[in-house]
Design a protein that fits this description.
Number of strands: 13
Helix content: 40-55%
Radius of gyration: 28 Å
Largest sheet: 9 strands, mixed
Strand order of the largest sheet: 1-2-3-5-4-6-7-10-11
């Protein structure tokens, strides 16, 4: 952070906005009366990177549950808009379509700001949580189901494996939401596509670009098919085409990532001679280790454990996996010999070596004493600047929190809820705590009233505790009582997570991807058996996911042509990663086959979400959005190819 940024944030927090006209149309209720807009505070912290109301706004857009029926109930979709950095921005923003299905994004202000800042040079960036997902699903929490199944859910929080219970919970949640009036078949990708157009229209954008990742690519493709009006260009990152049976093929991306790991070595004469038939040797090794595990760093090295190490490269946030491919053939060779030196270094985080300023300085042999002193001074200054920046960020976060409390001070509702939590902790028996929690959760669906709180405390606490809590209830204003009822959802977030995350995925997958044998337990097992793993690993991998049982509780809601390839002439950029273990590297090209105005790139050393793995992918995406009709200089892609460690300890570079 520089002083100018700090001053701008301070000015905003202290009530001196630098741009009072920012987002003027959105604050006025939106640009399309069919889809009203309400601005709400963004999830904290927003500082130090953003200023709520100036560089970023958050809110909700009201859309029909069924876009084909203007009289249907409305759903509130939570959105976030990051303002372009330019003083002369272009009119077409980028809308980010998150993955999943499920797993929203708008509550992660900092992550979104980080991931998409490179696109804000000239464009606004918009994101929204899809219908039925996270911040766009506040009324879809299955609190009745949670209350009824509280004891086994608590056991799940403790790590118990209860797959049959999960299916029962899904069944109960479907019934609860249906009884509360939700038309669950309308929670699908086609309605989502119409939501995209509605949100962008409500926010005042006549033309826009799409950046979709994972399930977001499937949604982007459906926008191109069902609601293409206003779409200027589309980036598909880590593609999940609708024609792919994603749940039958759960291990296809893993398998392709392995082949992509060794393919450059196999194609290179020197590497292939050093490590002949290395891909098949890897698969054989999985089988051998599954039958006869080794031990390294106190950990059992089984076939599944080695499989997970290779799959772990899909996690961009883990710095220890960067560069792992360099050691992959040598690792296979060592483990075949029963040697565990390399894998021990990997487990301990010592491979690949992580560079630092200190190691750089230590490795420099041709500097004079004065030059080394100057270099050390620069390193010390960098360290101090980092500490100062962190201190400033922490201070601004605290100031933001304090200002928020000043604007909306805590009420007696919070005080009573805290007292209730303390009283609950004092109940000695687990059965008594569970009984209280069930009644507490069930208040979620009652009209807020003080009498319900009195009934709760008198039913579950001794006379002294109930009397003390009852005296607090008597002090609560109607607003305080309503606040207590609103806190019920917050207080039980951990319980809700069990239902929410999985159910959001099931809501979409089970209704639209499990149709007429498209995705099935039989199909999943059969495909795993064909992927080239040995008998032991095939048995281990083919354990049928609980998703297939859970999906049997839903009624499929098929739509004509939904599972067919999308045909379009809209300008499209397709990005795929060679080591992506969630969406196969080949699926990008498959989608591009029917997108007649598309460019496609495959990135080495890139897992799920090419955007976050390299500056190369980010720059290619930005170049495309600047001029979708032009060719792209992609020479940086070849620079991502890593060398391989040879048996003699040298590094050998291979051709792409």
């Amino acid at each position: 952070m520089n002083p100018e940024q700090i001053f701008a944030v301070l000015s905003a927090l202290l009530g001196e906005p630098s741009d009072p006209t920012a987002f003027e149309a959105q604050f006025a209720g939106g640009a399309d009366t069919r889809y009203p807009v309400e601005i709400t505070p963004c999830t904290r912290p927003v500082v130090p990177d953003e200023i709520d109301g100036e560089t970023v706004i958050c809110g909700i857009v009201a859309v029909p549950e069924d876009h084909r029926d203007a009289q249907s109930r409305t759903l509130d979709l939570s959105f976030i808009v990051f303002k372009a950095h330019s003083l002369a921005p272009v009119a077409d923003p980028v809308v980010y379509l998150h993955g999943g299905p499920g797993g929203g994004s708008v509550e992660s202000v900092r992550s979104l700001s980080l991931f998409f800042d490179h696109l804000r040079g000239r464009r606004d960036v918009v994101a929204f949580d899809q219908r039925g997902v996270d911040a766009s699903a506040p009324d879809m929490d299955c609190f009745g189901t949670l209350a009824k199944n509280l004891e086994p859910i608590v056991d799940q929080l403790g790590g118990a494996d209860l797959p049959q219970l999960e299916t029962a919970l899904v069944r109960d949640c479907i019934s609860e939401l249906t009884e509360r009036g939700f038309d669950l078949p309308q929670f699908n990708t086609t309605q989502n596509a119409l939501d995209v157009r509605a949100v962008m229209s409500a926010l005042g954008y006549a033309e826009y670009n799409i950046y979709g990742v994972s399930y977001g690519t499937k949604l982007a493709l459906e926008v191109m098919r069902s609601a293409p009006e206003g779409v200027r260009a589309v980036v598909l990152d880590s593609v999940a085409p609708p024609q792919i049976a994603l749940y039958d093929t759960l291990f296809v991306p893993h398998t392709e990532a392995i082949f992509n790991t060794f393919a450059p070595c196999e194609a290179d004469p020197i590497c292939a001679e050093a490590y002949p038939d290395i891909t098949q040797r890897y698969f054989n090794l999985l089988e051998d280790l599954e039958a006869r595990p080794l031990e390294a760093a106190g950990i059992e090295i089984s076939g599944q454990m080695l499989f997970s190490i290779f799959s772990g490269r899909n996690d961009w946030s883990d710095p220890t996996i960067r560069g792992f491919t360099t050691y992959a053939p040598a690792l296979v060779r060592e483990l075949e010999d029963g040697t565990v030196d390399l894998i021990t270094q990997i487990i301990n985080g010592d491979l690949p070596p992580q560079p630092s300023a200190e190691t750089l300085l230590a490795g420099t042999l041709d500097l004079s004493a004065d030059e080394k002193a100057l270099a050390q001074a620069a390193i010390n200054a960098m360290s101090q600047m980092e500490i100062a920046s962190d201190t400033a960020s922490s201070a601004l976060e605290q100031l933001e929190a304090d200002r928020d409390r000043d604007l909306e001070p805590a009420s007696l509702g919070e005080f009573f809820d805290d007292a209730l939590e303390d009283a609950l902790a004092g109940l000695p028996d687990r059965a008594d705590r569970l009984a209280f929690a069930q009644d507490y959760l069930n208040l979620r669906f009652e009209t807020p009233r003080a009498g319900a709180l009195l009934d709760l405390v008198r039913a579950h606490f001794n006379e002294a505790t109930a009397g003390r809590l009852a005296s607090l209830v008597a002090l609560l204003s109607p607003e305080d009582v309503e606040r207590v009822f609103n806190l019920i959802a917050t207080d039980n977030a951990a319980l809700q997570t069990i239902m929410e995350g999985e159910f959001e995925l099931l809501l979409y997958a089970c209704q639209e991807d499990f149709v007429d044998g498209f995705n099935s337990a039989a199909g999943f097992g059969a495909l795993v058996a064909e992927l080239g793993y040995g008998p032991l690993m095939t048995t281990a991998l083919a354990e049928i996911p609980s998703l297939f049982a859970d999906c049997s509780e839903f009624t499929p809601a098929p739509r004509d042509n939904y599972l067919e390839p999308v045909l379009s002439d809209i300008a499209v950029l397709v990005l795929s990663g060679e080591i992506d273990t969630q969406t196969a590297s080949s699926w990008g090209g498959l989608a591009a086959d029917t997108l007649h105005n598309s460019q496609s790139f495959l990135f080495p050393e890139t897992g799920h979400g090419a955007l976050v793995f390299s500056q190369c992918a980010r720059d290619i995406g930005e170049a495309f959005l600047e001029n979708p009709g032009a060719g792209i200089d992609s020479t940086c892609v070849s620079d991502l190819r890593l060398p391989y460690l040879m048996p003699d300890g040298s590094l050998h570079s291979v051709e792409n």
